[in-house]
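Reply to dn_fold:

You asked what the input looked like. This is it:
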Amino acid sequence: MKRGLIIAGTFATGLAIGILAVIAIQSMSRKNEHAPQNVTQGEVEQSSTEISNNLSSTSTVGVGKFEDIFKHRSITEQHTALYTSLFGATEPQLRDWWNQSKNIERASHREIAQNVILRKLTAINAEQALRYLDDVSIFRIDTLFTTVFSEWAVSNLEGAIEAASTLEGLRRIVALQAILQSRDDLSEDKRRLIAVQLNDEDTFLRMASDTKAAHSIAEPKEAWNTLLNDEIDDSQQTQSLAIVAQAWFAEIGFDVLSIIYSEIENSRIRADLVRVITQVDPIGTLDYTRGLSDSRVQSALSYIIVREWARTEPQAALAAVSTYEPPSMASSLASTITYVWVSAKPYDLIKNIEVLSKDARIAPLEVAFSNLARKDPMNAIAMLSSIENYVGNTSTILNGIVGAWAVQQPDAAVDWVLENFSREDPQRRMLLQDALQNMAVQNPNKAFELAIDQPAPNRGSGLEYYVVRKLVREGNIEQAANLLPRVRENSQLETYSLVADELVEMDKTNEAFALGEDLDAEKRKYFYQTVVQNWTWHDAKDLYESLEELPTKDLKSYAAGRLIWMNRSAPLLTDDQIEHVKTFLISEDEA
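and this is what came back:
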């Protein structure tokens, strides 16, 4: 607690002053924006004398004029020079200045110049100033919209409101915010009415609440309650809540974490606020949770804290949670830290893998190498040797590398496997299983040919099953069905059933049954039963109505037994219908 208060104290006073200063700055900026009228007479005369010889008020503006203006090192002097140069400029001259401003190389200088030019132009012809924004970068548009509407609202409030009403979406919100910020001289009722006119009362309410909270920042609890009890959804005030939470933390320490948990219902906002406190003192925030008696609160807060801490100092976070109680919690927190670490900095985790316990290394390494393989698979493969001493068997890590590689470059991944593993190597089959599925999306015939060229396993299905399965999952049923006659015998039943199941889901049961004509009698019997079983779950009533059409008495009896069994747990058929179903039963299928 003491450490946290000391750290927080370094910014608490400045924080309070800074928030209050926002309101003052808005007022001051309006005065400064109308320079040179509001610059002292001496400054104007001095600036005019220094600049007038170089900056004539001709209608043609050269980039050299901006170069002279921005020779001033002080931003204040640059603004003064600009306002002096633009003093008395006509609309055509301002248009010329605007066009030349686009050629200013330094972004910061270009932004200063365009802001001043737009303010001057808005005072003369606001509609024209607004049209100038049509070709502005999307990254600058909001700032310049604010410039135009701030100036417009001062010179012609009704005109600014009318123009804002023609805008849509975020543009209208930005315009309204600018109007309300620049016209804080109006009564609260008048400003609220403006927001209502623009169909966005929420923006007014949020800004009003933020202002009240800023005024009471010296009393964080009061500011906090103002924000929580207003008419605005907390999700629109997360930044203000974070500022107040920091100020309150400076006052009461880590107890603010429990307040955040108990009073903020939205889990995303709660996490955002806890992260803000964690950034100040991650050690202190985690230590605070150790003493919490409510395990639910302790768990929720500690996970947020370690996720934030792991972004910047994963090893320090791991060391801290190693002593957390109970041990099961320590292990879970360590896993969370590792996941964040591997997601944000895979190279760093690989380089420092020894800090993880031996039984916790494989899973994050699989993720790390898969992430690297998406950008440079060969480099990821080359790096495997660097971690062999720490994990021993790297086969699952290699599986992840090839799998990630095959998503983007299936042909290259498959070729590498074929060139580097013999036909008898069991890992070759494991690597091809994923790689060929990805190849099947782009080149199903080639993937299938390679699959059936591989040795058939003693048990289970061959690789062609996985190629067909991928085609089915991708919705390419026709292609999958066309490949079935070439499926090897040991993979037939499972692969045919896979395609048939999808056809049943598509209400194409006749096509599903037709697939069985390729199979020998024994396989066909089991295949038909599989189709009926899936048909029962998909549409039992349709199966009931189709009993007469099934190809054999044995299959009709099997279907009847499935319907009776299913109807016991999920009654869909009437008693009379069940009696009719029973007429299809052969004695051994009776349930």
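Confidence is low (pLDDT under 50) at residues 1-63.
Hope that clears it up.
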